[in-house]
Amino acid sequence: MEKIIKKFLNEVNNRNQNEPEFMQAVSEVAETVIPYIVNNDIYYGQNILMRMVEPERVLSFRVAWIDDQEEIQVNRGYRIEMNSAIGPYKGGLRFHPSVNLSILKFLAFEQIFKNSLTTLPMGGGKGGSDFNPKGRSDTEVMRFCQSFMTELFRHIGPNRDIPAGDIGVGSREIGYLFGQYKRLKNEFTGVLTGKGVSWGGSLIRPEATGYGVVYFANQMLKNASKSIKNKSVIISGSGNVAQYAAEKCINLGAKVLTLSDSSGFIFDPDGINIEKLHYIMELKNIKRLRISEYVKKFSKATFYKNKTPWSMKCDIALPCATQNELNEIDAKVLIKNGCFCVSEGANMPSTNNAINLFVKNKILYAPGKASNAGGVAVSGLEMAQNSLRYNWSREEVDERLQSIMKSIHESCLEYGKEKNYTNYVKGANIAGFVKVADAMLAQGVV
Ligand code: NDP
Ligand code: 2IT
After folding, report:
1. Which atom of ligand 2 is nearest to the CA of 347?
2. What CATH class does 55-188 carry?
């Protein structure tokens, strides 16, 4: 088996050189899915995983725009249309200076499995740009978004490819992107998700990813006869996903000790309560300042510059910032300190060595493609509401979100059961794979 996996990965690597993040995501899937394929006649011999790792289409384009000093700026825009076997391409847009082909291909690849797990009919895609919104004025962000959409609009559509937000793309950016799409196409359609509620957005979409991460953690805990109440939680990030993961933890009676950004993390020994969280939301979403400001207002808290929070003692860890933010050494420290549950809000935040340690030590570990699927799931519900030309209530959307997270957990149990342990990595990968593979086989070699 080792040999078959190695041969496959070598072949993928030859075709995708200098794409470490993409190879990392493919390796994690190959390790669990190839043994399953080899033992199942319907998939064996169909070159099905090789077809899945090859994007259906990769778009790369120039985004030229004029900044406030009237200088001409050039960025690169991308859209990876990875797989449309079970529905139109669906996935977020990331605006961050680190964005490159490897990162977007890993995200688009993960999205295939995640979207399949949601039970909704969505294919996999991802896009974005190396544009850095930090420090840019609102009008600069608007001009950038307009220029970006002026190319992207010809490739997307409500039945073709439906982008949404991700790092650096929140409600402000979705607004500017939607406005330009509507103007260019002269039509009001649900071509993006994460829209404002008064113009086609869904209630609970801003909260969905963070809430979903905690709903999933809850499912894992319940299955192990544990509960989140009174547990200590450390969270990384302080953006959209981290904020609402923190909110849900607090509301369920857990104690949230940390949040972070790319400059370091804050530790509050008293716990971050709802009032303190609202202060952080204002700090990050409106004033667009750094997390270190927190300790100026709450003096018992400490700011650890250029550090990640994994050295702090906790019961539950929720990595909600970015890829590869939690390595093998961090995993060792977490386990040593008694952490027994890790539910990923970010995409691929744990390195493969960290994941192997979690699994070996029987930690309740949920990979992002399962635990952060709540965001894209409510995006799918936003698309459904747009098609119906109707809006569901907060309660109705939240109920559907909870039931989707429960069903993802059940799929993981179905395919990930091992002796005395549920391997959620294996469960999520195989369950996500089966639905897409069956659709691809039914649709022939295309
Ligand atoms: P935001 O842009 O709202 O927040 C990102 C947060 O992560 C910020 O606190 C940011 O800090 C921090 N961060 C970003 N890059 C780095 C880095 N290189 N090193 C350290 N910290 C970093 O993004 P989201 O909250 O939407 O996304 C967070 C993660 O969740 C991403 O992995 C994303 O792919 C994933 N995700 C998002 C979904 C969504 O619906 N939004 C759905 C599913 C997954 P700073 O401000 O300093 O950059
Ligand atoms: O990684 C993700 O799932 C997202 N950024 C959300 C994608 C979406 O289409 O809502």
Report:
1. 1
2. alpha beta
